[in-house]
What does this fold into?
Amino acid sequence: LWGGEPTLHRDLVSLISYARGRGARRIKLVTNARSLAEWEVLTSLAEEGCRLFEVKINGSRPETHEAVTGVRGSFDQTLQGLQNASTLSRSDEYGNSIYVGARVAVSRANLEDLTSIVSLLISFGVDRIVLARRGSDFLLGEAARVIANAMKVATLNRTWSVCEGFPPCLMKAGEMHVAELIQPAFREGERPKGCRGCAYKDICSGPPEDYVHEKGSREFRAVSSSPYLEDLNHLLEMRSFRARQ
It folds into this structure.
């Protein structure tokens, strides 16, 4: 459940209950978590069957986060919601079935803050961190190095992280963390000339279309070979097999 802010929908609890009743096995809520700062709101969602909470955060400090949200006090509310979700995930109330992730919309405004954001999220004990490109106000090649460093911090702290919108040719040695390679792509990208003959051509969705139209495709170069390709193909085969069950 995502799009805008789902917790503002007055029928959210009923929708979750309906989905659960129709056999939905995994119900995920992508949220700014401000409403989850109220414990009763969080538990009402969990009781109806929502077990995955992905919290959106834009900075490690109020000034960075709230420059994006435009709402004073939203940083503290989001952190309280995240804390509540993390506390619930560690309790035995729902059989340890609550999963808490975080989603960071990467932009020029918070690019240099990413490592601090990841460190902050690790302190809350999140299960997964998604670093997702937002807009085209920075060069992907430059941002990829910052993304890679932030993901190393997560890995060293035993926290799984993935990036979205960053093609594998830019994520050297970080290909196993490129979301589009390990899960179905949300949208197809461009296939510029530089992609021809790439080792990832059969599983990579290509550079983001909007980015290529605005910035061009000079950054993207075909990867001649990859030590990760066999493992990635095996992972995709396993996901496809499970989806058919």
